[in-house]
Known about the structure:
By secondary structure, the chain is of the alpha/beta class. Helix 22 (562-575) packs parallel to helix 26 (668-677).
Amino acid sequence: MRTLLVVIMCGEMLVSLARAQSPPRPWMLMPMPAELQPGSGQLVLDPSFSVTTTGYTDARLQRAVNRFLNQLRFETGMLPLDMNLVRGPAATLVIRTGHASQEVERLGEDESYILEITSAGASLRAPNPLGILHGLETFLQLVENVPSGFVVPAVSIEDQPRFPWRGLMIDVSRHFIPMEVLKRNLDGMAAVKINVFHWHLSDNQGFRIESKKFPKLQKMGSDGLYYTQEEARELVAYAADRGIRVVPEFDMPGHATSWFVGYPELASGNGPYAIERKWGVFDPAMNPTEERTYKFLDEFIGEMAHLFPDRYFHIGGDEVNGVEWSANPAIRAFMRAHGIKNTDALQAHFNQRVQALVNKHGKIMMGWDEILNPRLPKSIVIQSWRGQQSLATAATEGYRGLLSSGYYLDLNQPAAQHYAVDPMRGPTANLTPDESARILGGEACMWAEYVSPENIDSRIWPRAAAIAERLWSPESVTDVDSMYQRLEGTSRWLDSFGLTHNASYDPMLRRIAGTDDIRALRILADLVEPVKDYTRSKLATAEATAATPLNRLVDAARPESAAARHFATWVAALLAGGMKPDTEAQARTLLARWRDNDASLEPVARDSFLMQEAVPISRDLSALGAVGLEALDYLDRGQPSPEQWRAEQLARIAEAEKPQAQLLLMIAPSIRRLVETSAGSAAPTTGK
Ligand code: TNX
């Protein structure tokens, strides 16, 4: 034992010596902690690893420690199976918890923790179990796989979130998302310290929760795809175990067609109603002038308030177009009789009534931007899909709010774009301290028009981790290169929680190719991204519906191409003259591979229906590979490329930059830069 210790200590000194000379390590943490002090040396993880909990403890905390140990065992293979929690201060990791957290997690509860790791051991302290949950995830993120085994670098971390509300919304209406998919996503959320799961349970295309009082809601409004109340309770418990609040949303008075299939009397039109199969904004809306609507909602909200223990209750409220209201003579008469000037005011009237019901059942009402109205009490919370201006307005009027504009994962934007969006920038930047405190945080939104259980993880992860960092870490944490470096590590780490953002990629490509040999297809798929924003629906040849297949290359392709981003970084370095000598050789290898890829893809493409639409993109990739190589030749020779050549290539590139098969070929802008620079004014390359 003693010799072992000596060996370990010597090894450690060597390591810390090496460390002393090496540049600061890239901490593979996401979100970055509020404060981090590097220590010297490292904690070696070996089979003697043990944990003890001191101070307050409870069953949830013990389950969390067990999950942590299972995860650590899974990741390192180091821990023995019979490992028990040991008592006493001799444990490798000593957890100390001050007191219990709230029975049902409250917004704004203390989530802080202190994690100290030395070569001798680790200590994790927090006022209550929520901080311990976060600290355990941080510990897992710190584990490194080095040649000698698994280690945790010595470090001292004092951490707490910048915002109390860090959410992920998942729309389960447009496409039903099964329980196990939600659960693994809750694991991912906990891993990056997201603490609210906003469950968008109803919309025009599906009513997804069992109501015992109004069973026709799920029976007629869901195609049989809904969660039982038992499942909902199970999910709430699963989330609570991970320090995640569950806020249910029942979108009303619009986005509610699925309710009207079973209960047409709730609607403002004549019906009959059917489950909506298309995407967009539709006319049906609840009838805000009938008492029976509120009687129904009273009972329904009461039932759901019981099922979902969180204090907050989301009523949606977005995108009511007023068409059904204006078309109904009785509603028009009601508006005249009550001096209600327009449909917006009618919606405010509805919201006031609903707010009273939500309040009666012990909940705080929240909704999208549209619910903001001075007639509603200051207790309501505004979730903004429109932008910081709405939040600033709400905050100055005394309302609390959170930001979702800029965090829409379904729009397939790069992580850097979400990362740059800050709830406190722009119109919210100049609020008074009191007003600023009303900005609770934000939520990433996974609207589900174009996701299936198979690819939803790849739309959420890893990009949601960048949003999680924006909402947890200090405002000053903004380095995009560091973010991407850590995001790549985080993405691999998230695999180990069973998320399928990476794992579903190859099977989808194999299905598209109709063969196991997807080498060529993967090279192409790695370089394309789905079109951005709402372009997919605009470019669709046939209007997309719930029945539109989600098995195309656009559905498999990642929202953000790491390969194209790396290539862009390389091109930028080249043009800035800061390229390492061997990098050009590597880039040439890549360009040549791209140039030659179409020849390898062609035989596969010939046999597969799903490959047909990829063929023109594959040809573009080939052409761009060749153009890139030629541009490099000019640059290397220090000889300006002929104007005629450039004009032809730029025209070719412009073609390749156009979306095809709902995809963008992401290396096109980088090849453009190479061609433009080959005109001659740029710094010379390193040459060969
Ligand atoms: C708008 S913003 C919606 C959703 C759609 C989403 C698609 C808001 C509250 N509503 O109904 O799914 O855009 O991006």
